[in-house]
Every structure is written in structure tokens, then in C-alpha cells.
Amino acid sequence: MRSIFPSLLFFLSLFSCSTPENNPPYFNSVTGSFPIDSLGLTLIHEHMLVDFVGADSVSPERYDQEEVIAKVLPYLLEVKKYGVKTIFDCTPSYLAKDPILLQKLSEQSGIRIVTNTGFYGAVGGKHLPEFVFTESAEQLADRWISEFEDGIDDTGIKPGFIKISVNEETPLREVDEKLVRAAGITHQKTGLKIASHTGTWATASQEVAILQEMGISPSAFVWVHAQAEDDFQNYLRAAELGVWISLDGIGWGVEEYVDRLFFAKQNGILKHVLISHDAGWYDPAKPGGGDFQPFTNIFEKLIPALKAKGFVDSDFEMLLIENPKRAFGLN
User: Fold this and answer.
1) What pLDDT, on the 0 to 100 scale, is given for residue 23?
2) What pLDDT does 106 receive?
3) How far apart are alpha carbons 258 and 82 in whole angstroms?
4) Which of 36, 146, 199, 291 is least enclosed by beta carbons within 10 angstroms?
5) Where are the alpha helices (DSSP H) in the chain?
6) Cα dist from 166 to 2, 90, 124, 263, 270, whole Å
7) What SS3 state is found at 249?
8) Mean per-residue pLDDT, 3-16
9) What is the dihedral of CA 306, 294, 228, 197, to 10 degrees?
10) Domain boundaries, the chain
11) Which residues, listed in sequence order, are joined to residue 41 by a DSSP beta bridge?
12) DSSP letter, residue 173
């Protein structure tokens, strides 16, 4: 195994040997539940398969699982060489979330994969089934709670977090507010954390306010795609509340993330930051699944760039090991 910084393998070995007492925090993966201390080096926002055709047309018949595995598996084995132990797959329902496919990829790669529950409201609701517009937040939450308790569909595979998305509007659209409330109810019943595809703080702060009204700590909320925020002072505001700031498009570029992470380090808020690539994306609409984006920019480009700015091993351990563990543990 290639080490990305000298102390990483030792750090991981401590986790694998830990034996916490009496109901330790845990996480759900597609191959079962494990103590959160075994999460290890984690990428918290990636995609194996995504189908953007829309909720009214998405179907498992649009792709062949074995073809997807043949395309995706080499990329998982590639990033495994950097010590990655767990990957969160952020493809939600009605965008081709396929827990069995993820289970096969996990078993063949040796990387634990975490899937989700929830619905995706962005793109004007294109990826929402019709019942989302008529059911209440409580009814939607019942669906997601059932997946946590009984498994997704008939797979027995349980989600490890809630994935929703909202449109960038002020005020939030009615259906987007309902999705946030449904996620809040689900969190209250299950402990699952809420990762919301958002963008700017103007939108994320509205979501946080709804959760606070429900008596939910902002620490249950992951501000997905926070790299869209141009006012870095809003990172400080989010961190002060306890929100998780997810900088998760590193598969598509590095420079803008160096600036944001340097700001976070200089201002003492790295402990509130999560990083990932938002990479992968086998697309059934494209020949051969299209161009699959590797999961390696963090290790090959971002870490060297940050080291040149004064980052040290403990910073990377915090971003890639400690923060995911603190953000996503269940009790």
C-alpha cells in the first residue's frame, strides 16, 4: 500500500485495533454495520453510477451491472492504493441508486461503500417522483426511516446517511423545504446525518434554520458543494454553528480548493471541513458509461499543493479520517 503521508498507516492501524466498550458508534455500509472507529481514510462524496434521465424514466434496465463493474472497479482498486478504506456513494434514489451494484463493487474492491436514503430536489424537481409533491414531510420521512430500519427495497442494505438536494432560491421552494423537514424528522428518528446538495450559504443557511426550528443541531447538517460559496466569511459563520462544510468537487479541479482550505486552516476551522472529489459517474446515457473521472486528485494533486502551503500530516488525518468519523457516526 502506498502511503500518502508517513504516519497514515500507523494511524489506520490504531483504528483497526480499537475495541470500544458497550454500543460504540457505528456506520452502515452496503456490506453491513461496523464500528465508526474502523471507518478509516474516507472519501465522503463520490459516485459509481448516475443516470440523469429523470425520475419518470430511470430504470435498472438502462444499464448492465457487470458492464458498470468492469468500468468502475479499476478506479476503486487504484484509489485503494492510497489507503482509502471507505467511500460514501452520494447517488440518491431516482438517479440510479443501486445498493446491490454497490455491494458487488465493495466486495470485489475491498473498499467499504456507504449508500443513502432521501430524494434529490434540484434541477427543478426533475429527479423527484410525483408522490413527493403530494405527500407530507412526515410521509416522506416514514419512507426513509423504513429504509434505515428494514433496508432499501428488498435488499436488506441499510443507508448510512440522508442525501437530499434543494434548488438555489430564497425563500426555498415549498417542495425543497418539505425535503429538509423530512430529512430532519428522519434524523431525529434514526441519527442519520443530512447531506444536502446545496451550493451557497444563502441557501444552506435557510436549511440550517429549518432544522434549528425543529430542535436539531446544525452539526447534523453537511453543506454539500460549499465550494460554490465565494464569501469565505460564510465558512466561519457555518463553522461557528457547527455545520459540516463539504468541499467536494476536487475531482474536477484543485486550485480553488487550495485557497479555501488554506483559509480554513488559517482561521482554525479545518475541524469542520470535509473533502472529496464528486468524481466517477458511470452514465448509462453515454457509450460505455462515458468518461469516468478518477478518485485520485486529492492524493496526487491537492495534498502536494497543500503541503507547499504549510499543511502537515495531522491536517490530512483530520480532513480524511477524523472529520468523517465525527460527522457520520451513529449510536
Assistant:
1) 80
2) 98
3) 20
4) 291
5) 8-17, 65-80, 99-109, 131-134, 137-150, 174-190, 201-213, 233-241, 255-266, 297, 303-307, 313-317, 323-328
6) 39, 15, 9, 27, 25
7) coil
8) 44
9) -130
10) 41-328
11) 84
12) P
pLDDT, residue 100, reads 98
41-328 classified as CATH 3.20.20.140: yes
pLDDT range class, residue 93, cuts 50, 70, 90: very high
Task: Compute CA 17 distance to the chain's CA centroid, rounded to the nearest angstrom.
Answer: 26
229: left (phi over 0), alpha (psi -120 to 50) or beta: beta
DSSP per-residue letters across 22-83 = SS--EEEETTEEEEGGG--EEEEEEEEE---S-TTT--GGGS-HHHHHHHHHHHHHHHHTTT
Structure confidence at residue 320 (pLDDT): 98
Grid coordinates belonging to 124? 427543478
Question: Residue 202 in contact with residue 217, Cβ under 8 Å?
Answer: no
| Cβ density class 174-210: b for 16+ within 10 Å, e for less | ebbbbbbbbbbbbbbebebbbbbbbbbbebbbbbbeb
Is the pLDDT confidence value at 11 over 50? no
The pLDDT, as a whole number, for residue 1 is 44
